[in-house]
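Researcher: We're teaching a course module on how sequence relates to structure. For the next exercise, students receive a sequence and then see the predicted structure as tokens, so they can try to spot secondary structure elements on their own. Here is the exercise chain.
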Amino acid sequence: MCTDFMVVAKDQTCVNGRSMDFEDDLISDLIVHAPGKAAIVASFVSDYLSSQPGGSTFKWLARKLFGAEIDTAMEWIERRFDLVPKYGYVGMTVKGYPLCADGMNSQGLSVGALWLTGTKFQEADLKATNVVCGTFVDWMLGHCATVAEVRELLESHKVHVTDNPPLTESAPLHFAVHDAEGKSIVIEFIDGKAVISDNPVKVLTNLPTFSWHLTNLATYINLTQDHIEERRIGDFTVRAPSPGTGLIGLPGDATAPSRFVRTALLKEFAERPKNAADAHNLAFHLLNAVHTTKGVVRAYREVPGDKPKREEKFDHTQWAVVKDLTNRVITIRMAASQVPWSLDLKTLQFDANHGRRIAIPTDVHNRLPL
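Model: And here is the predicted structure for the students to work with:
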């Protein structure tokens, strides 16, 4: 699955790191959304809802909102989902859809969607702006500049993130939100209600829910960055074979609880970065500590058909992003190459590049100038 965190440098530069882990090839690229233009997301949602068998999904939501069916899906979407963004943003897509799983906007707001089995989104509400769960990352990036704005819109019930059955079943999600002021929250949807939590450790992974992970940190309260060279036990002196004894017991497996603990403690113990460059470097080091190589984590899934069979699947890291929220620079590194590629949102011409899909190169290697 995925790991998300934020590092704050001594000069207050805020840098967010995130890994994307999944079984199937996500076919991800970077997409650009310009402010004031809704065509990409609105058209996708319209096509998606209308393509459901008998238009069932669209009709279900329309009845929930208006008590009757509406003939024109686009008209309904533009009225109720408020998909015209106020801010320009970029983000990483999945499965070819023009929707962001992770991204940053021109104001330095960062949003990432991470898997959370058991998620149940909200019911549609006629009095609120209703956002389809699959477009929630895009909606936050397009409409909010700070964590405080996101929180206010959800807590005041001005915005509902709707429980759309086909999307929810394929993508149960919770969300890590960070801003350039250094604020971080986690948004989860439990039993149809939005649960918004301050994120004091600025780390998020997957199941269980966020509050469980915070409680679980107490299990590792003994861990320290301080090395113990030797200890006397009776008449015998035990000497450490190498440095690092303070971290004995730090979990190193790929499960969500272990990745949460490992990231939180390594981030805490690491020398605090001085500036943006140091924070960027630390973020990639922390991402390396949770990188899952394909083949290391294997599961078997039932494949339906005339002759059902079991197929092996490998959960693995497919890409990682580091976002400098202060300086508005996003850096992407694909697992197939490890060469990072950066884009500066301060100089990006959003209007000229609206809708552009940028494939991240994986066949390029930097060569020494010899």
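Model: If you want an answer key for the exercise: The chain is about 25% helix and 30% strand. The first strand starts at residue 3 and ends at 8.
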